[in-house]
Structure to design on (441 residues):
């Protein structure tokens, strides 16, 4: 009998999780049951994915660089990647700004709703901590992000998922030096990392066997911890504008895949879908990264020389969904609070949202921290920031789930485009978790 495809299993898990979570909200003690007994399954799954992120980046980037026959290729890949990332992000912000200006979701919000949202969320600890984190980031010098990219202790960098860019820096430095000592001298280390790479990718396959159950737990928990449905409804128009923008962005990626990479966009979406579904369920592009890498390499055919650089860098610096959302949210807040925003203000949004998406961490809710910086850049009064964030807080989690899907899809698309340009887009060679199982069982 033909096995059911992974994306269908995950999708069924998600739907059952939503239904289960919904049913539990009606039972006395149901919410506590989900958060105490079901949610830990999802948390373990996310931890397992994060567990292998650093070994995977290390092994695959070293393998990728050491497979390069000449270093100048790496410079081409790097430059292309950064330029395409910036371009797609500008397209995303522009789509967001155009939609929010056409549909003006903030103008229809009544004063009572603004008051209700403010009273419910403005002093909420989560909103306050986002403002505090943004203030800490803003007080740094402009070049601080480059300084932060350079580790002073390789082992410390390798021991923290939050220091992904430091790991990438160290690994590229290591890989290039490896090329420079010549093939013979580098061989022992190369063999170790080649093998480590295969092992970690196998770990991804094994973790993914539990994905359908884990997404059940993750989504049931999202449903039981979601906000009051009345507040969600009041923000429906705003949420719909964000979602419409995100869908347009996915269509834009499909266009790029078909016109530039010359591949069928439906095939692309099908092959990448397990990563998209996990991005939706976990709201974290960093946690999804191992799966994105596995799908792009083994199922889409992007060579490791490209994917091992483009994807980890993209997970941290390329967030098209997040920047689109920042554009829409900033204008929505300005509209709802009657804060005038001229063309100059909108252009400031394009620039700061671009920088903010580069600076956002690839974890749930990070986009909202950077939104504070975008709001401050357009001169939004500091004492109203908490009210501004309170306005959109109720729908932030569902929108975070959707924008993370776009963040991940954007990274995968760009890796295809760069691979195509470098002649590194080949025929995918799918590996199954049990390819060697008979030999060891
Ligand atoms: N959750 C997003 C990500 O990890 C970031 C954000 O928009 O909050 O990609």
């Amino acid at each position: 009998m033909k096995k059911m495809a992974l994306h269908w299993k995950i999708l069924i898990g998600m739907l059952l999780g939503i239904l289960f979570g919904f049913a539990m909200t009606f039972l006395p003690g149901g919410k506590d049951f989900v958060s105490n007994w079901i949610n830990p399954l999802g948390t373990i799954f996310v931890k397992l994915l994060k567990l292998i992120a650093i070994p995977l980046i290390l092994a695959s980037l070293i393998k990728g660089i050491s497979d390069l026959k000449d270093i100048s290729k790496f410079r081409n890949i790097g430059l292309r990647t950064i330029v395409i990332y910036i371009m797609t992000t500008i397209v995303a912000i522009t789509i967001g700004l155009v939609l929010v200006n056409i549909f003006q979701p903030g103008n229809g919000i009544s004063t009572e709703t603004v008051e209700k949202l403010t009273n419910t969320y403005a002093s909420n600890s989560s909103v306050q901590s986002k403002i505090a984190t943004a203030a800490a980031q803003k007080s740094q010098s402009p070049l601080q992000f480059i300084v932060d990219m350079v580790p002073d202790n390789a082992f410390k960098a390798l021991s923290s998922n939050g220091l992904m860019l430091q790991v990438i820096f160290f690994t590229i430095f290591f890989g290039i030096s490896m090329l420079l000592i010549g093939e013979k001298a580098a061989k022992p280390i190369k063999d170790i990392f080649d093998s480590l790479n295969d092992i970690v990718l196998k770990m991804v396959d094994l973790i993914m066997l539990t994905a359908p159950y884990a997404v059940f737990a993750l989504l049931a928990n999202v449903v039981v911890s979601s906000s009051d449905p009345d507040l969600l409804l009041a923000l429906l128009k705003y949420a719909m504008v964000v979602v419409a923008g995100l869908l347009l962005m996915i269509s834009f990626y499909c266009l790029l895949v078909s016109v530039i990479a010359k591949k069928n966009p439906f095939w692309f979406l099908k092959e990448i879908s397990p990563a998209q579904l996990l991005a939706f369920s976990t709201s974290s592009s960093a946690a999804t990264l191992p799966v994105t890498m596995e799908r792009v390499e083994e199922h889409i055919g992007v060579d490791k020389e490209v994917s091992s650089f483009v994807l980890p860098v993209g997970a941290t610096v390329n967030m098209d969904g997040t920047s689109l959302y920042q554009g829409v949210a900033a204008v929505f807040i300005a509209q709802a609070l009657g804060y005038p925003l001229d063309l100059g203000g909108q252009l400031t949004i394009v620039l700061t949202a671009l920088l903010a998406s580069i600076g956002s961490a690839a974890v749930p809710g990070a986009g909202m921290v950077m939104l504070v910086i975008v709001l401050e850049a357009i001169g939004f009064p500091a004492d109203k920031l908490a009210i501004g964030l309170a306005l959109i807080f109720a729908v932030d989690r569902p929108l975070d789930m959707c924008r993370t899907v776009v963040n991940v899809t954007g990274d995968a698309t760009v890796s295809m485009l760069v691979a195509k340009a470098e002649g590194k887009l080949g025929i995918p060679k799918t590996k199954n978790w049990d390819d060697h199982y008979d030999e060891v069982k």
About this structure: The longest helix spans residues 30-67.
